[in-house]
Model the fold of this input.
Amino acid sequence: MEIVEKFIQYANKKAQEEPEKGWDRMLMGFKANCFRTRFLPKKGIAAGYQKLENMMMRLVADSLSHKDSYVWGNIFAPCEIMHAFGMNSLSIECLACFLTGYHLEDYFIDFAQDLGVAPTLCSYHKTFVGAVTSGVVPAPSYAVTTSLSCDGNLNTFRFLQKKKGVGFTLLDVPYKDDEAAVGYLAGQLEEMVQKMEKVLGKPFDMGKLRQELETENETRKELKKLYQLLQVHYYPGEVVSQLYLMMGVHLLMGKQEFLELIQFMNKEIEGNPVFEGKKILWVHLIPFYQETLQHYFNSSRDYQVLASDIVLDCDEELDVERPYEALAEKLLRNVFNGSYKQKTKRVLELMELYRPDAVIHFNHWGCKQASGGSILLKEEMKKRDVPMLILDGDGIDKRNSHDGQIKTRLEAFLEMLE
Done:
């Protein structure tokens, strides 16, 4: 571990002093971590979660090693379309998480704010903007974002277009889910594909897209089975495992290797002992770096994160014969689209399906929807006598999170559960 920390410090220093060389060192670290997660597994962690971590490390390392192999996106950008171009989709939120592995989030956030980026902008976005504008992270040829959920998406991608010349498509997702909205959004997707063909100089494979949707339907069936098994069995993971699962569902959905991974996890968990501790339904983002959360949830036999709404944000059966319309419906019916009532309804459905013992809602600093809606959700939980804890903090910027406060509130909540 001492060698790892020294390399992180070295890469951190290089990134600030010589951005391009710092990027090379960071890529070297990502690739080394791919090797570690494959050949030097952690003790006490399920093999499925370790395979998932390796898969996400490979996605990032392989993509970033080849500039023309990926497209920037936000977490809800349709990765299936990128796959049909033979490219990967890397969300700026997920990349920001990986950059924190080098303890650079504070440097990148300050760099972005010094350029005039508002301090109130989400720290995931500020980390990414700072990483790109500082010259550390190179820009790809294209980007895709959506209006879904986060009001910072458009401003971030416009800023990067202005500073780095990265063209992008904004998918305007209507709040209302009806036939007109489906047609409107499907038309945008078709126009986006035509534009990407010209910009990327690559042909679009409709047959591959249909195959992606077929695989995605199978993957969602396996995910439902996984969560049913998690109701019963002990399946040791880490707080960061939930982050990797969220990344997989949004960046690798439709890939055969991701389907096979979920199938592997289902087979593995069936042989595990019964879990006799408390099961938690997690709502919104998860601050994977928080020491207190790691202490209570990593490989714990007492507390297990059963599911997360951001992983189970949509369970639509996709119509393979109508690919653009199917992807439009997937975006329109996402739990993060529309008013918070829709999200509350989805969380209540998850409560009925998986019967957790409690709910924890994390209010990420800068996310207005989460902060405003958490009280509404707590009122619904109170009506049903379901214990719910609201934690305030920052999913990226450690300076906006106070571990001592989180520790006090979490321990009191867990003691109440007992």
Summary: The chain has 17 helices and eight strands. The chain has a mean pLDDT of 92.
